[in-house]
Amino acid sequence: MKCAICKNGQMRAGHTTVTLNRGDSTVIIKGVPANICDTCGEYWLDSEISKLVYIMADDAVKKGAEVEIRRFVAA
After folding, report:
1. What is d(CA 10, CA 50) in angstroms, rounded to the nearest whole number?
2. For residue 1, pLDDT beyond 90
3. C-alpha–C-alpha distance, residues 23 and 74, integer Å
4. What are phi and psi of 69, to 5 degrees?
5. Which helix (H) or strand (E) segment is 50 a member of?
6. Which residues are within 8 A (CB) of 3 and not within 5 positions of it... i.e. 6 or more apart?
7. Which of 4, 8, 45, 69 is the right S-S partner for 28, CB 3.0 to 4.6 Å?
8. How much is the pLDDT for 4?
């Protein structure tokens, strides 16, 4: 599949780090499965992975974390 951003690279399976900001909270999730462009590095998460990432981020924000770094673990 061609990259939707750079239009040149190919998307390949791999792992990435996702950083999310909400209000005063920053949540960093490492090792997230993603399709990653081999040219520009842009990544694409499928819908199920996206849901899990948002659940992890919501949990951190609800706990009042200012900065939290987590490793991705599928439920």
Report:
1. 21
2. no
3. 26
4. -115, 125
5. helix 47-62
6. 9, 10, 11, 37, 39, 40, 42
7. 69
8. 92
CB atoms within 10 A of CB 52: 17
Tokens of 38: 């081999």
Which pLDDT tens digit goes with each residue over 30-72? Answer: 999 999 999 999 999 999 999 999 999 999 999 999 999 999 9
Structure-token pair, residue 65: 């974390």
Residue pair 33/49 in contact (Cβ under 8 Å)? The answer is yes
The amino acid present at 37, given as its one-letter code, is C
The structure tokens 């599928």 sit at 74
Q: What phi and psi, each to the nearest 5 degrees, are found at residue 55? A: -65, -45
pTM score of the predicted model: 0.88
Max Cα-Cα span within the chain: 41
